[in-house]
């Protein structure tokens, strides 16, 4: 078995285990919606609360295209949230893909309800999302 196949298998097991553990801890799960140009992309979000009352958000993705396939100038994916009732987008971090086009990222936010998008970007520290949306979802109690 090739190293990349072992890496992919381990990544998928870790992602599945993370979602199972999140489900056991009372997490809410959401299926991401793919963007117009990324119909085959899949994403699952598990949201739970930590001991401080923050939301712990675990995103796992599969079947995403490489960022450069959407636009030659794109090099990575970035996860964004926009808290309910605002127009502000927070860059929550980079989402890197494995060779098999899967990936996962976990972050913490104080916001209970938000819009979440994954965009293709030229670099991970951009201050506003591009229009290259690959996944999206409304998350939280009132959405």
Top keywords for this entry?
single chain, Immunoglobulin-like, alpha+beta, 9 strands, 143 residues, five-stranded antiparallel sheet, globular, 18% helix, four-stranded antiparallel sheet
Q: Which strand order spans the largest sheet, edge to edge or round the barrel?
A: 2-9-8-5-6
Bin the strand percentage: 35-45%
CATH fold description: Immunoglobulin-like
H/E topology pattern? HEEEEHEEEEE
The rounded Rg comes to 15 Å
**Which structural class best describes the helix and strand composition?**
alpha+beta
CATH architecture: Sandwich
Helix tally? 2
Number of strands: 9
Total number of domains: 1
Helix content: 10-25%
Q: Major beta sheet, specifics?
A: 5 strands, antiparallel
Report low-confidence residues grouped into runs of 5 or more. 20-24
The global form is globular
State the name of the first-level CATH class. Answer: Mainly Beta
CA-CA gap between termini? 44 Å
Average pLDDT, rounded to a whole number, is 87
Write structural notes for this entry:
18% of the residues lie in helices and 41% in strands. The chain is of the alpha+beta class and 143 residues long. It has a single domain, classed as Immunoglobulin-like (Sandwich), CATH 2.60.40. A hairpin with a 6-residue loop joins strand 5 and strand 6. The N and C termini lie far apart (44 Å).
Short description:
The chain has 143 residues and is of the alpha+beta class. The chain has helices at 3-24, 67-70; strands spanning 28-31, 33-34, 42-49, 55-62, 76-83, 90-95, 103-109, 114-121, 133-139.
